[in-house]
Amino acid sequence: MTRLESAFSKPHAAFVAFITAGDGDTAANLDALVAGGANVIELGMPFTDPMADGPAIQSANLRSLAKGTTTQTVLMIANEFRARHPDVPLVLMGYANPMIRRGAQWFAEHAAGAGVDGVICVDIPPEEDDTLGPALRAAGIAPIRLSTPTTDAARLPTVIEGSEGFLYYVSVAGITGKQQAAIDSIEANVSRIKQSTDLPVAVGFGVRTPEQAAEIAKVADGVVVGSAFVDLVGEFGTDAPAKLQELTSAMASAIAKARS
Amino acid sequence: MNETTPNSFRTQPDDRGHFGEFGGRYVAETLMPLILNLEREYRAAQADPAFAAEFDDLLEHYVGRPSPLYFAERLTEALGGAQVWFKRDELNHTGAHKINNCIGQILLAKRMGKTRIIAETGAGQHGVATATVCARFGLPCIVYMGAEDVKRQSPNVFRMKLLGAEVVPVTSGRGTLKDAMNDALRDWVANVHDTFYIIGTAAGPHPYPEMVRNFQSVIGTEARAQMLERTERLPDLLVACIGGGSNALGLFHPFLDDTDVKMLGVEAAGHGLETGEHNASLLGGSPGILHGNKTYLLQDENGQIDEGYSISAGLDYPGIGPEHAWLKESGRVEYTAVTDEQALEGFQLLCRTEGIIPALEPSHAVHAVAERAKQMSEDQIILMNLCGRGDKDIFTVAEKLGVEM
């Protein structure tokens, strides 16, 4: 069983926690997320032009880049994380240009070497899979795709074909960190997707409180939280780890109890 | 030319929106269904004679087309070489070529039943053109504009507001044109059901590069017919400035298979290519992915996008339309770059020899024309697209020339 499969085989929904690489003390932040009970780590690769992200993650990207974060920095953070946490799945999330800059194969091989389990590339849709997908699969990394409220029944099979690891359902048509969708709409969409695939379905965008996380954990295989953590890093800087662990624990506990 | 010279240069892109290895549809999944739907609707509009008829009618009676083809006699004499002719797209309603594309896209938006229009703008020319067509068709218009540009281009901001548009100053990122495009994309992704995004240049995800090129091709189609009628021959060299590249493609595309017609695209070299402060994506950049397409970009070794620089806000974008990237690699079009200082010389040259105040964007092309004309013979013809008028730029020019206004 792969690390991602294990994370999605627990009695409760998998808790996927996102922060931006190079923002604050990233190693300490990641350790805090794991200590607090995150099951999957999603590590954001900073980009100058994060078109799908709201103000929280945009700011995190700029803070990280201002500190001189490079692709090598991100890979080093991943590599060190893997050494400290051999069993926690690690997913890189980001935009196409930094991923393909030195060639898709270079990126895939180095990411695999750093112990990365999956890659979410926001701006490579299935139609452009050739750009990165084959290199990831050859390196044993899961290309994780996004499904959205605009992905209708006719299109869903295109998205699922070639997806690995899990499917990330973006619950709102919009950018990260804004409003959350109504739970009945999330439930309907998740069950629609699950009729078409055996992949686990994780739900994200706009999840900020333990209560919201618990609601989603009742109907989905995973809950993704990002902007709420990124805001803590922005607000507390190097003091963020304690705050991150506190929020992660509250969310993990809410998610663990959600189905009972 | 590469060994794989195609039979025709006018059949791009392929059905996935690729111009060779460039172009494509690199957008978030939320937008993919919209992009695919836009392509279907555009194909249907292309096949509908009523759509073309309405487009042509508006171009004739609202924009003022066909724009004149003008022989610049005194400039030609001053240069002492090839004959210089201008396609006068600066005489269009709103003062630039931008309106051609906006007419096409607003008709498509109307056809698709969209009720809200968004756009990005740098100097404000595309914003003004979009606000203009929105007023004409009674649709609400939101224009994203970098906060710095809002300050620098206050006359255009006021024009847009007079026309009823809402101008949103963009402070995200570094508050420039590329950030305005990011925020327009963020708006679109959150308002997918009622909103049409009018992109101002031949870039972005497929079908925008092809669609914008086709709407702008009225420039080259007219110019080709006018040139044949007036001189009974085709020009030897076409010249146009390039930011995103829509005015150049509009002129070049109808001539691409006329093998004896050479073409020169002129990028903005800013303070000089060697200084790193420029907007020459083709000459000083490298291939990458941004804003929905694969193309040449100004970027660092980690794939982070660099800020471009040019005296001309209309050329101030770190990317370029993907068809230009392909035309460069195929060798069909030659590309060069002209500095701020050279563009200012071109600007003044045209003012004094022809009584035409050009925009700073085509002033770059004027400089390149002057250089080339001197190396060509008197029986040869250069045709340049004079894509915008310079009223908007007089404050910038005055400052550079040390004149207080």
From TrEMBL, chain A:
Pathway info: Amino-acid biosynthesis; L-tryptophan biosynthesis; L-tryptophan from chorismate: step 5/5
InterPro entries assigned: Aldolase_TIM, RibuloseP-bd_barrel, Trp_synthase_alpha_AS, Trp_synthase_suA
PROSITE patterns (UniProt xref): TRP_SYNTHASE_ALPHA
Catalytic activity: (1S,2R)-1-C-(indol-3-yl)glycerol 3-phosphate + L-serine = D-glyceraldehyde 3-phosphate + L-tryptophan + H2O
Pfam families attached to this UniProt entry: Trp_syntA
Enzyme class label: lyase
Keywords annotated in UniProt: Amino-acid biosynthesis, Aromatic amino acid biosynthesis, Lyase, Tryptophan biosynthesis
EC number: 4.2.1.20
Top-level taxon of origin: Bacteria
MF GO annotations: tryptophan synthase activity
Residues the record marks as active site: E42 (proton acceptor), D53 (proton acceptor)
Family: Belongs to the TrpA family.
Family annotation (NCBIfam families): trpA (TIGR00262)
Biological role stated in the UniProt entry: The alpha subunit is responsible for the aldol cleavage of indoleglycerol phosphate to indole and glyceraldehyde 3-phosphate.
Subunit note: Tetramer of two alpha and two beta chains.
Protein name as it appears in the record: Tryptophan synthase alpha chain
UniProtKB/TrEMBL annotation, chain B:
Domain of life from the UniProt record: Bacteria
One Pfam assignment: PALP
Residues in Tryptophan synthase beta chain-like PALP domain copies: 64-388
Catalytic reaction annotation: (1S,2R)-1-C-(indol-3-yl)glycerol 3-phosphate + L-serine = D-glyceraldehyde 3-phosphate + L-tryptophan + H2O
Record keywords, A-Z: Amino-acid biosynthesis, Aromatic amino acid biosynthesis, Lyase, Pyridoxal phosphate, Tryptophan biosynthesis
Function: The beta subunit is responsible for the synthesis of L-tryptophan from indole and L-serine.
Protein name (database record): Tryptophan synthase beta chain
